């Protein structure tokens, strides 16, 4: 059976409303305008430090505020779980994939504290036999090292990565593994311009796509 590794934000969960709420509390304190949900989605993907840098750039806050705002963002991040939801059909798809004997892992650029907090809050932690976070290794996605480590944690078998973003597509390409692209996440680039093996807009289709990858 296969080793299937998932991205988190924008793939399994829609966490943008919680991340937007933290950002807007910080921006209000700085006297800067709020960011929209669309802007928030656009800033997610390369981890917390890059999110804060993009948020600052969008509101003209200086580089000298980065360390302070990043620290405040991370401090708030672990308790920011209440507005986050699992995308429709995710749990049923994971049930099917696990019942077929596939092993599941997670590879996210979100730091470990908030990753475990939101997984616990949503009852998802036990689904994953291995979890690689943005601060688990010196390298972050799109460096393929965390994805390789996630697959290594799942033993042997064909490898498949499932994600939503430009970062995930590049990571999969650099790791040379099949990539299933969820199109309803935080991607900004047209699907046909991103590396992918199959694209899907509904988790009900995921088990079939995994089966298609495995017969190739
Ligand atoms: O925290 C981020 O910026 C991205 O998280 P993800 O890798 O789960 O999409
Ligand atoms: Mg993502």
List its traits.
single chain, 216 residues, alpha/beta, globular, HAD-SF_hydro_IA
Question: Brief overview, please?
Answer:
Keywords: Carbohydrate metabolism, Hydrolase, Magnesium, Metal-binding. By secondary structure, this protein is an alpha/beta fold. The protein is built from nine helices and eight strands.
Q: Explain this structure to me?
A:
The protein starts with a strand and ends with a helix. It is built from nine helices and eight strands. It has two domains: 3-14 and 83-215, HAD superfamily/HAD-like (Rossmann fold, 3-Layer(aba) Sandwich); 16-77, DNA polymerase, domain 1, CATH 1.10.150. It has helices at 16-30, 37-43, 48-58, 66-77, 90-99, 112-122, 145-152, 166-175, 206-215, and strands at residues 3-6, 13-14, 85-86, 103-107, 130-132, 159-163, 179-182, 198-200. With 216 residues, it is an alpha/beta fold. Strands 5-4-1-6-7-8 form a six-stranded parallel β-sheet, sandwiched between helices. A two-stranded antiparallel ribbon has the order 2-3. The mean pLDDT is 97. Helix 8 (166-175) links the parallel strand 6 (159-163) and strand 7. Helix content is 44%, strand content 13%. Helix 3 (48-58) packs across helix 4. The chain binds 2-phosphoglycolic acid and magnesium ion. 2-phosphoglycolic acid binds at residues 7-10, 44-47, 51, 108-110, 165. Pfam families: HAD_2 (PF13419). Pathway: Organic acid metabolism; glycolate biosynthesis; glycolate from 2-phosphoglycolate: step 1/1. Its EC number is 3.1.3.18. Keywords: Carbohydrate metabolism, Hydrolase, Magnesium, Metal-binding.
């Amino acid at each position: 059976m296969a080793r299937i590794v998932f991205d988190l934000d924008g793939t399994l969960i829609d966490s943008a409303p919680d991340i937007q709420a933290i950002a807007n509390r910080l921006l209000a304190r700085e006297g800067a305008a709020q960011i929209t949900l669309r802007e928030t989605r656009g800033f997610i993907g390369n981890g917390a430090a890059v999110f804060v840098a993009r948020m600052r750039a969008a509101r003209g806050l200086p580089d000298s505020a980065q360390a302070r705002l990043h620290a405040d963002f991370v401090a708030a991040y672990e308790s920011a779980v209440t507005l986050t939801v699992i995308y429709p059909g995710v749990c049923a798809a994971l049930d099917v994939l696990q019942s077929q004997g596939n092993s599941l892992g997670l590879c996210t650029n979100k730091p470990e504290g908030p990753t475990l907090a939101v997984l616990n809050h949503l009852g998802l932690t036990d689904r994953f036999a291995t979890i690689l976070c943005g601060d688990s290794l010196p390298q972050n996605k799109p460096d393929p090292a965390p994805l390789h480590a996630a697959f290594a944690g799942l033993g042997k078998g064909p490898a498949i990565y499932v994600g939503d973003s430009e970062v995930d597509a590049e990571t999969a390409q650099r790791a040379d593994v099949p990539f299933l692209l969820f199109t309803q996440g935080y991607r900004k680039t047209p699907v046909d311009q991103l590396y992918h093996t199959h694209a899907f807009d509904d988790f009900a289709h995921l088990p079939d796509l995994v089966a298609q990858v495995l017969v190739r």
